[in-house]
Write a structure and sequence with these properties.
Helix content is 34%, strand content 27%. By secondary structure, the chain is an alpha+beta fold. The chain has a four-stranded antiparallel sheet. The protein is globular, with a radius of gyration of 15 Å.
């Protein structure tokens, strides 16, 4: 069954164009190195009637947006191989200056997930 890396980021809304540019380049690199799917989604409907809304959970400020993203792989082993190649790719190294990111790395959440259900 597939394996997914999931990300939750807080991006200043003014930085969304720069984030989109960076993510578009990154997505191409991940796909070239074997990822099955790469998605970057920005918050749109945050006023939900149930559960804990993202703005409350993330202590979102009015000038911030939520980015929810994921990368799909065949397996965890394949994910590890793809990520090793991606991290050595000069296109990624050139765009990963921690002092010049369009989001705060300290506020990023990331984890790997085994697929539980696929419909």
């Amino acid at each position: 069954m597939s394996y997914v890396d999931g990300f939750l980021l807080i991006v200043p809304t003014k930085n969304l164009p720069a984030y989109k540019k960076m993510a578009s380049k990154a997505g191409k690199v991940w796909i070239e190195h074997g990822a099955l799917d790469y998605r970057e989604c920005v918050s749109d409907d945050l006023d939900v009637p149930f559960g804990t809304p993202f703005p409350k959970r993330l202590k979102l400020k009015p000038d911030e947006s939520v980015v929810f993203s994921w990368i799909v792989y065949k397996s965890r082993a394949q994910r590890d191989k793809v990520n090793a190649k991606v991290m050595k790719d000069p296109r990624i190294a050139a765009s990963c200056d921690p002092n010049n990111m369009p989001f705060e790395i300290k506020k990023m959440s990331y984890a790997g997930f085994k697929t539980l259900v696929k419909a």
